Amino acid sequence: MRRLATANSESPRLREKHAYESLQVSGAALRRWYELDSEGARSAVISEIVRARPRYGVEVLGMLRDASLPEVESVLVENLARTEDFEIENNILALLERYGTGAAIPELVSSRGELVGRWACAPQTSFLAYILKFDPQAARPLIERAIEARGEESNACRHSVFMDLGSRHSGSIIEELAIKALNDPDLEVATNAVTYLGRHGSETAELPLWTRYIAWSRKWLGHERELRFEFGAREEANLWEANLGPALATALARGNGWFADQARLRSILDLAVGKDVHSVVESALKSASDRSIQFFRGSSDRPAWFAFGQYDQLTLEQLRRKLAHFPPGTRFTWPAARPSVSPEEEKAFRDVSDATARAYIQVVRD
Asked: What is the spatial distance between Cα 138 and Cα 165, in angstroms, rounded to a whole number?
């Protein structure tokens, strides 16, 4: 593992076929070496982090147990100043987000802030995520700039900014901006905001989503044909209108931050316009009666998550809050999908069953 992990590949282009394949092997070996001998591999990992042109991103080098590495922050900033390669920029900025302390925020905003809206999407997202992690208020005007960037010179990253950042950090700043973006004239931005609020929004987001869904349904009631896909005939103006409706219905029916019972799902269905929206809500209604809880193991870059009913990708706390809506005596099953249960799953089962027992709700192994 050590020999493979330290194999040298210094291609100036990380995506060049030979370099990419070589780095896939050496990156996997470095991860495995660290699993087998964390102390022995630690210095090699740190050497890769401070390399002038980091060969790997945080998906490989983010594995150290340290919450931060203040000693590497200034080196990363110096290395960032020496490159204009967007892949190297992204690797460095993602590592700053993972191991930084926020100390470099003033310098980075001064040197790179003006690139927001014109930058490649990957380094822009890592730049914004670093600032958002340590100083949400400083991040606000930069995220607003990313959302508002329009015109021929813009990078169009506004179309994915909410979900790109939401996969790494959420919170009141992004939620507030996403709620505002529900009425963005660029409906691709609005749809991305809807998806973010359904996945990461709090209970506060439910009412604005309802308001937007009602307005959309009223606008298109009686005009369903204009939303249908007809090859070569669909008007470009309606493309994202046709995507927005199902996205709104999905967010309301399956939103992680609130609970949609059968009555609420039928209310969403009553307002459904078009075949696609009906299909989304009918699917949620069908799933809502399922009383099994699925557990999915976490990884180095995301915690374990749960699914039940019409919901998926729930955190433990979100799962607890949703189960609390059910009356005492409700019984849920925990399917045993594998021949042996991992310690992580065993702990998750105990956490869930202990929490629900206090509400007289049963979670039993299937």
From this structure: 15
What residue ranges in the chain does DSSP mark as E strands? Answer: 293-296, 305-308, 311-314, 331-334, 362-365
Give the C-alpha separation, 122 to 87, whole Å: 8
Task: Judge whether 209 and 253 are in contact, CB under 8 Å.
Answer: no
Q: How far, in Å, are 73, 90, 125 from residue 68 at the CA level?
A: 9, 18, 20
**Cβ atoms of 246 and 277 closer than 8 Å:** yes
User: How far apart, in whole angstroms, are the C-alpha atoms of residue 276 and residue 254?
Assistant: 16
Q: What pTM was estimated for this model as a whole?
A: 0.89
Question: Is residue 293 classed as helix, strand or coil in its secondary structure?
Answer: strand
Task: Report yes or no: 146 and 116 within 8 Å, Cβ to Cβ.
Answer: yes
Gap between the Cα atoms of 354 and 333, Å rounded: 14
pLDDT in tens, 87-99: 999 999 999 999 9
pLDDT in tens, 2-49: 888 887 656 555 556 667 788 888 999 999 999 999 999 999 999 999
170 contact partners, CB below 8 Å, separation of at least 6: 200
Three-state SS for 13? coil
Q: Directed axis angle between helix 206-220 and helix 187-200, to 10°?
A: 140
Gap between the Cα atoms of 255 and 122, Å rounded? 27
- DSSP annotation of 324: T
Q: What pLDDT, in 10s, does the model give residues 153-177?
A: 899 999 999 999 999 998 999 999 9
Angle at 85 between CA 186 and CA 66, to 5 degrees: 90
Which residues in 240-263 are b (16+ Cβ under 10 Å) and which e? bbbbbbbbbbbbbbbbbbbbbeee
